[in-house]
């Protein structure tokens, strides 16, 4: 579901985007193995350990180290072989033949077989009749075993994005003999899942039988962090060695003597997402008025010291071929224009609504706070409703029971469709209930194209249409700050929402 915050991914969606909080524990590192690392994460993982049912970007972000698909993304955004060592595609683009890599073992010591691949792909594509976690996998018509080392995946229609769509935790290869994947995480990745203490931590250990380059850090503890105000103290005090998704305020508090602070972007679309199912957000003029009322520059200055990147649609800058920076200023801050549009829409005296925000994501709470003040200037009253992450995920994202929300949506897969498909009116992850027959037609026609230039142009038109319709109040791709103790090196940013611990080494 990178890059996934919550990057909601496929829901959300890796989500997909995310501010951080910190553990309420203290203590030092005395007696700790020098091949261990403790990494802070902003919220607990989901209850399920089944990769095909993981929804939250923050969960998939860390289980990237445990689960692998037939292919996976690298840090440059390329799709590379993983459990499969070779891929061949038929001339008509409908049949993908995967050669299973020799010697790949599951974490329980058993060899990966063609039956495991068939089982996994049938399960995550939900061929038996449900809705797949990756919507694009509804295009899979059959998964056939050719022989002990080869599996064919047959598509209903040619899809240039197919490999990118399965390069994710949501399409992981898991053992057929695992009777309870929701409780037993058995993958093929460089780390094994060991244990979970709810609201406290998740523990991984090195997979010494990994088929690829072995990790160096032996033990990984993901410490659940709940208090954003204590992050710097916890880092300096030694309770954690590393934390990603830091705010600019956190960055300013961290000693560069003991920690290296790395800068990147979160690869997500932060926005005030509007539920089109309800008035007044079904009214285009109201949505446009809100876009004019919001001052993005002021938000960036308050939330990220101006280090974020303004965006104007559901595409972030690292998708260079589809991204249009000009859209970031499609609705320049103009309170008088906003008031005119509200009057035209019949809301001359404004209206009231709730902004539901997950309380553990500081950047989103801060963004909502600024938006509330700005909307008040045009007569709109926004009430901020902070909820815990599980409540946001179940009620807002899945249940769609909300007026508006501030969150960051990531791509999950390295495709434009991963960001744009969710706005098709009948998409299972269309949590904003955006409904446009023109958009549906354009997206579906574009998706069916096989020529890359034509597809690129079509997807850019989709991005433009979301801006023209003011589908949401788009804000920024948030800056990504990572603090890592100087005892370690090798942290690498990905264009999707993952933390790759296998690249982290002990500093020499």
Question: Strands, helices and their partners?
Answer:
Blueprint: E1 36-41, H1 57-63, E2 71-73, E3 79-81, E4 84-89, E5 95-100, H2 114-125, E6 140-147, E7 150-155, H3 162-165, E8 191-197, E9 201-206, E10 219-224, H4 231-237, E11 242-246, H5 248-253, E12 259-265, E13 268-274, H6 284-293, H7 296-304, E14 309-310, H8 335-344, E15 352-358, H9 362-376, E16 381-387, H10 389-398, E17 404-410, H11 416-420, H12 437-447, H13 452-468, E18 473-477, E19 479-485, E20 488-489, E21 505-506
Parallel strand pairs: 1-10, 1-11, 15-16, 15-17
Antiparallel strand pairs: 2-3, 4-5, 5-7, 6-7, 8-9, 9-10, 11-19, 12-19, 13-17, 13-18, 14-18, 20-21
Helix pairs in contact: 6-8, 7-9, 12-13
Written account of the structure:
Helices cover 24% and strands 23% of the residues. The chain is of the alpha+beta class and 508 residues long. The chain has three domains: 36-53 and 62-66 and 189-266 and 483-506, D-Maltodextrin-Binding Protein, domain 2; 71-171, Dipeptide-binding Protein, Domain 1 (Dipeptide-binding Protein, domain 1), CATH 3.90.76; 268-477, Dipeptide-binding Protein, Domain 3 (Dipeptide-binding Protein, domain 3). The strands form five sheets. A seven-stranded mixed beta sheet has the order 8-9-10-1-11-19-12, sandwiched between helices. The longest helix has 17 residues, at 452-468. The two termini are 36 Å apart.
């Amino acid at each position: 579901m990178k890059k996934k915050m919550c990057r909601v991914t496929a829901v959300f969606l890796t989500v997909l985007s995310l501010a951080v909080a910190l553990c309420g524990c203290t203590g030092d590192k005395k007696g700790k193995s020098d091949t261990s690392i403790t990494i802070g994460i902003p919220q607990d993982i989901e209850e399920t350990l089944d990769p095909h049912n993981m929804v939250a970007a923050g969960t998939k972000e860390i289980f990237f180290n445990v689960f692998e698909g037939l292919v996976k993304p690298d840090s440059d955004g390329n799709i590379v072989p993983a459990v499969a060592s070779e891929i061949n595609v038929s001339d008509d683009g409908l049949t993908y033949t995967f050669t299973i890599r020799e010697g790949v073992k599951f974490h329980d010591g058993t060899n990966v077989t063609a039956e495991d691949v068939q089982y996994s792909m049938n399960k995550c594509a939900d061929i038996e009749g449900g809705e797949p976690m990756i919507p694009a996998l509804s295009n899979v018509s059959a998964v056939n075993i050719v022989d002990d080392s080869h599996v064919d995946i047959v598509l209903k229609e040619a899809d240039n994005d197919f490999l990118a769509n399965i390069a994710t935790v949501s399409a992981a290869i898991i053992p057929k003999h695992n009777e309870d994947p929701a409780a037993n995480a058995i993958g093929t990745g460089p780390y094994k899942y060991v244990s979970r203490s709810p609201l406290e931590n998740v523990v991984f250990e090195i997979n010494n039988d990994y088929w690829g380059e072995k990790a160096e850090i032996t033990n990984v503890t993901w410490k659940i962090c709940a208090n954003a105000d204590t992050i710097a103290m916890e880092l300096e005090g030694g309770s954690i060695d590393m934390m990603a998704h830091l705010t600019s305020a956190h960055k300013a508090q961290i000693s560069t003597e003991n920690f290296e602070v790395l800068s990147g972007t979160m690869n997500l679309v932060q926005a005030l997402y509007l539920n089109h199912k309800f008035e007044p957000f079904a009214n285009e003029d109201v949505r446009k008025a809100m876009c004019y009322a919001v001052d993005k520059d002021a938000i960036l200055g308050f939330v990220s010291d101006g280090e974020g990147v303004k965006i104007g649609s559901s595409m972030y800058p690292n998708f260079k071929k589809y991204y249009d920076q000009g859209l970031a200023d499609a609705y320049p801050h103009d309170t008088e224009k906003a008031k005119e549009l509200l009057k035209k829409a019949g809301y001359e005296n404004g209206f009231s609504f709730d902004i539901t925000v997950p309380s553990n994501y500081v950047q989103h709470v801060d963004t909502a706070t600024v938006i509330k003040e700005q909307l008040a200037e045009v007569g709109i009253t926004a009430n901020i409703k902070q909820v815990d992450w599980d409540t946001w995920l179940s009620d807002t994202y899945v249940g769609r029971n909300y007026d508006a929300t501030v969150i960051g949506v990531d791509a999950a897969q390295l495709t434009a469709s991963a960001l744009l498909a969710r706005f098709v009116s009948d998409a299972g992850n269309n949590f904003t209930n955006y409904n446009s027959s023109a958009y549906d037609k354009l997206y579906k026609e574009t998706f069916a194209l096989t020529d890359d230039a034509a597809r690129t142009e079509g997807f850019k038109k989709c991005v433009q249409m979301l801006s023209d319709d003011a589908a949401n109040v788009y804000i920024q791709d948030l800056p990504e700050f990572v603090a890592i103790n100087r005892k370690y090196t090798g942290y690498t940013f990905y264009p999707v929402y993952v933390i790759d611990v296998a690249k982290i080494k002990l500093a020499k």
